[in-house]
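Hello, quick one for you while I still have it in my head. No rush at all, and the record is pasted right below.
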Amino acid sequence: MVKIIKLQNNSEIIGTMIEDQTDKVVIDNPFTINYMFSPKSERPVIGLLRYLPFAEQREISFHRDSILNVVDARASMSDYYCVVLKTYEADIDDNIDRELNEITEMENAESELHDTTDMLSAMLEKLNPNNSVH
């Protein structure tokens, strides 16, 4: 069942509750509920962002001492959560992984280039200690 958790820090989390224990609640695929105000709207617009978007596991434990309330999500919010979750699973998570991998590959290539440049400079210095290239 899709639940909304209000944390002591005023964050609101939505997700599928998979465990409800005395000391913790475990939520699968939690998202934070963000309220955004727009001059074009009389009321706030909501957006969902994955909670801990870079975590490997998707089941997150929330300790009871950090929770103020746990409530059922109304049907419309539950439906919205499911649509957002599908979008994340189909596109956004893959795009994030692809982007992070590209950055890592670029950094590794730059590091290898720097190492090669340092090695060539050291070799040239040994061949020509006066630093004059002919």
User: Anything to note?
Assistant: The radius of gyration is 25 Å. The domain at 2-88 is CATH 2.30.30.100 (SH3 type barrels.).
